[in-house]
Specification:
The protein is an alpha/beta fold. The protein has one domain: Divalent-metal-dependent TIM barrel enzymes (TIM Barrel), CATH 3.20.20. The chain contains 9 helices and 12 strands. Strands 1-2-3-4-7-8-9-12 form an 8-stranded parallel beta barrel. A two-stranded antiparallel ribbon has the order 5-6.
């Protein structure tokens, strides 16, 4: 299938939304995102449904289980399946979390990587091998976390910058993750944004989160996007331009009309950014 790069505003491709989307994809939704682990190799109706949309819209692959910073061997077999799957559907971008999620088995959580030179070298090697196997540069996503690993030798921004430069990969910017971490750990979200290698930004996520009774923010992707996160997205666009941006919604999924209203906010911010840059 011919390659279809993503641009504009997009939405996570959820099975719950397939039938409403078949009735008509709203104009604001220009692409979809999926987790290849959940779709590669499937058959039957699910395969036909995916093909129906991938023939008409660009898709981005956002991985869940590669565990780029983890101690377990890199899953080369998974990467080969992903490469074949992406080629089959004309997908041109693969991103993964800058975290780790497995050792002897999958931990079903995304854990932070120690901010050390040794971890930079380890992670860069794994990203480089992943890129070699996929035959493309990948995007790494700044992750949310709830405990800071000990022994830091650099800031998180310096850590991400070192990995992006040394692995020659791309940045997948998640503005909700920045907001969540900034509230939980008491740092300035805009300063953190400016510390990232924004010139490498290839893709953006925006999402909602949950607030615990004690004030802890949890990155659930299960609620609407709040105003401070929209403001952070707008600030990011001023720095990087209207890069392809996906609305993540993985739990408590509302109807398509409500989701589309949020995608339209993304599209509106992108249009405003283009107008400002053209002025």
């Amino acid at each position: 299938m011919n390659a279809r790069p993503a641009s504009g505003a997009g939405l996570g491709f959820r099975r719950e939304l397939i039938e409403p989307l078949k009735s008509g994809v709203p104009e604001a939704i220009r692409f979809f995102e999926l987790a290849p682990e959940n779709w590669a190799g499937i058959g039957g109706k699910s395969a036909r449904d995916l093909r129906h949309f991938s023939e008409r819209y660009p898709f981005v692959c956002h991985g869940l289980s590669l565990s780029l910073g983890g101690p377990a061997p890199l899953d080369e077999a998974l990467l080969r399946r992903i490469r074949s799957f992406m080629a089959e559907h004309g997908m041109t971008l693969y991103t993964e979390h800058l975290s780790w999620s497995g050792d002897d088995g999958h931990l079903y959580d995304l854990l932070p990587i120690p901010l050390t030179e040794k971890a930079v070298r380890w992670t860069v090697d794994r990203i480089s091998r992943a890129q070699d196997t996929l035959g493309m540069r990948i995007g790494i996503e700044n992750a949310s976390y709830y405990v800071a690993p000990p022994g830091a030798e650099m800031s998180e921004g310096e850590f991400i910058g070192a990995i992006v430069r040394e692995a020659d990969c791309l940045l997948h910017l998640d503005v909700n993750n920045i907001h969540v971490n900034s509230r939980n750990f008491g740092f300035d979200a805009l300063a953190f944004l400016d510390a990232l290698p924004l010139e490498r930004t290839a893709y953006v996520h925006v999402a909602g989160h949950h607030v615990e009774p004690d004030g802890l923010l949890i990155d659930t992707h299960g609620a609407g996007v709040i105003d401070p996160v929209w403001s952070l997205l707008e600030a990011a666009y001023r720095r990087i331009g209207p890069v392809a941006t996906c609305l993540e919604r993985d739990f408590n999924i509302p109807d398509l009309q409500q989701l589309t209203a949020e995608v339209e906010i993304i599209a509106g911010l992108q249009a405003a950014t283009r107008q400002q840059k053209a002025a």
